[in-house]
Design brief:
By secondary structure, the chain is an alpha/beta fold. The chain contains eleven helices and twelve strands.
Length: about 350
């Protein structure tokens, strides 16, 4: 079992300068504590995501860490030019000497991409073409592409990645019908929400992967499950801190949807904190309780990667560090023998 971190880099009570510094200091802790990777979101015009330019944030992460892998989860391809994203990918992989993990998506919020003049109905086509162009550019010295959205002829590619043929790719999945493409191309996946439906995705992924890419003896890609986590000295302390931060985070999550009078009713994590805890989508408590909860969720979901969230809402830097320190000292050893670097 590998542990990673997913971070919306959402806005709390601190200044933006302090928010960024706090996240970078936390990345240094992830780096020396044996976490596999640090993944950040891309959002626009919403307090849900202050890393609107993921590559800028990740360039700083590259300089503040030595072992930790990192990357966007995801680059929103519908609002960014593929040539620019291609170049940023290559630069980040070079700056980190091959530690980049790259997620791609089309953009979940019609309001965010709409501010860029992108029609949500067209975003799928933009995403598909942009992904194909980036794939070509990562494996070729020249790009030639003829699509409905993009056309390129003899565009030279001067930058390249350390990792060949390209850094590991990531994709968010919520339905099993998208599994075959991801599994057949050995793309890592991440899921949110209740663990039971995730099991259908991971079972299908293993089946599809074994029948295609796995038949050549490769390593099974990562199948991740995201969970908010707060570890406290007591269950009550963890619950109270977690609820306060979660409520702020959830308001940020729904900010644009409510601003447009269109509540998002299909999100897989419930707004009520107690309900989210009881359904296993938020794990809070003492180290023993958190360990027990994670073992249960991992077993139900059938995943081999756990994406933790220690910083969210208005949790202070000190609260996140305390929870993280207890997690690395008393919970992680129950799942992995990865060395912790002091």
């Amino acid at each position: 079992m590998k542990f990673g971190v997913f971070d919306h880099v959402d806005r709390g009570n601190s200044s933006l300068a302090d928010l960024y510094e706090s996240r970078l200091r936390l990345a240094e802790i992830y780096d020396r504590s044996g976490f596999y990777a640090y993944h950040i979101a891309e959002h626009h015009s919403t307090p849900l995501g202050m890393a609107a330019a993921p590559s800028v944030m990740l360039a700083a992460v590259a300089q503040r860490t030595k072992r930790l892998r990192f990357g966007p989860l995801v680059y929103t391809l519908s609002v960014s030019h593929p040539l620019r994203i291609l170049e940023e990918i290559c630069m980040l992989d070079q700056m980190s000497r091959g530690r980049l993990e790259v997620g791609f998506g089309r953009g979940a919020s019609p309001y965010e991409i709409g501010y860029f003049g992108v029609d949500a109905q067209q975003s799928a086509n933009i995403y598909t073409e942009a992904f194909q162009i980036i794939q070509q550019g990562l494996q070729s010295r020249e790009i030639n592409f003829e699509g409905e959205i993009f056309q390129f002829k003899n565009v030279p590619v001067e930058l390249e990645c350390v990792q060949k043929p390209h850094p590991p790719f990531w994709y968010g999945l919520s339905h099993a019908n998208a599994v075959p493409w991801a599994a057949q191309n050995s793309i890592n996946i991440v899921c949110n929400g209740p663990s039971a439906p995730v099991r259908a995705i991971t079972d299908r992924y293993r089946q599809e992967w074994e029948a295609s890419a796995g038949s050549s003896g490769g390593t099974l890609p990562l199948m991740g499950l995201g969970r908010h986590i707060v570890v406290g000295e007591t269950a009550r302390e963890a619950f109270e801190i977690g609820k306060r931060g979660f409520d702020v985070w959830y308001r940020s999550l729904m900010h644009l949807w409510r601003r447009h009078n269109h509540p998002l009713t299909t999100y897989p994590i419930p707004e009520d904190f107690s309900d989210a805890v009881n359904r296993g989508m938020v794990i809070v408590g003492t180290p023993d309780q958190v360990c027990e909860g994670l073992k249960r969720e991992i077993a139900i979901a059938g995943v081999n990667y756990l994406l933790t969230r220690f910083a969210f809402g208005d949790l202070t830097h000190e609260e996140s560090v305390h929870s993280l320190s207890m997690f690395t000292a008393k919970v992680m050893p129950e799942f992995t023998s990865e060395p912790v670097h002091a």
